[in-house]
Design brief:
By secondary structure, the chain is an all-alpha fold. It has one helix and no strands.
Amino acid sequence: MKIVVTLLVSFAILVLGYVAYVDAQTKKRQELIKVVEDAEHSLNTIQHDPRTHLSSYKPNH
């Protein structure tokens, strides 16, 4: 009986650790996507500002 409980607790700890890892990776990915989107928005704002010399810049997409 002690072996079964020990195995169940070990399995629960592994599952909880994996779920925490996946959650942390998801949050990091969301934060990175947000930073990239903010950077793109800032770049578009700068490119379309007539007061900057970058308004004529054409990206190579």
